[in-house]
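Recall that a protein's primary structure is simply its ordered list of amino acids. Everything else, from secondary elements to tertiary packing, is in principle encoded there. The following example makes that idea concrete.
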Amino acid sequence: MNILNALNLLSNAAIWFASRSKYDWKDNGRPIGSDACNQVFASDYLNNPLRMGQIMREENIPFDVLPSKKLAGYNGRLLVVSNVINIRDEEMDAIENFVKNGGNLYISGHIGNPRLLTLMEAESGGMTEHNVTYMNPTENGKRFFHDFNARSPMAVQSKQEILRLHGEYELLATITLPYTMTDKKVFASIHSNPPGIHTDMPAAILKNVGNGQILWVAAPIESSRPYMSRKAVGRMVRDLCGELPFSSNAPAFVEVIGWDKDGKRYFAAINQQETAPIAPMTGIEITLPYVIKNAKMAETGENLPVRTEYGSSVIQLPILNIFQIVTVE
């Protein structure tokens, strides 16, 4: 039995890993046996949700990874659908129910089922011809795109989906295109394709649907490598999550997870540094939005320092080498 089936993970966000959509849109038209189609681990279907997971870990946002068979039973606060190319009708049933019943949906890139267009009151206009594009934040969108503006919009190293939207929605960003068409022997700059054509085409929107919300972005910006771009995605996710079940100040390479099992609550800190020797980490704290009696090391029963701040409990972890588990009451 998978150990995760016996755990109740403490998270209100989940990334859907759509294993039935295991292909890359860019491979359309290529022979199935070609080398390009066989490079599964280089495909966007895998990279996009993994990059979102990295951002959520950097932001210390607890999250789960959801397989397709668990989609219908998910009752968290946020569901991430990262550039999923094909969404089956039974999966779409689950997504519709989730949003209409109060869940928040982050969806990027391709519209994997026409019913998503119906939910967003939208029509597809295809994709931009340019394969290097930009997102220009609106005034409403600046709460997410802090460091970007019309003179310096967020770079997107891909095409963007074009939607014609109806009904009410909050426009967060619009599409900006380079001065010249990309992939042609015409250049505005020797080193890049700088932004120059501002459009009113939506690049990011927030829309109320039923009792929930949909935040749609026209490209999988969670795969962007620049720090400021990842921070923008992190702000979106944190806003959609609402209050977190716990938080920490751990660095990006230390993942903290929490779960309930057999009437007890546990937290684990995992040091995932990728280069040796592993440097021990100090000063890591876990903050719970409620008051606890005590916190102990699961292995030794050693009591850990706990302080109370504004109705929350802050647990101070001992020096972390590789792995440790804490129990709380």
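The two ends are 27 Å apart (CA to CA). Residues 178 and 194 are 5 Å apart (CA to CA).
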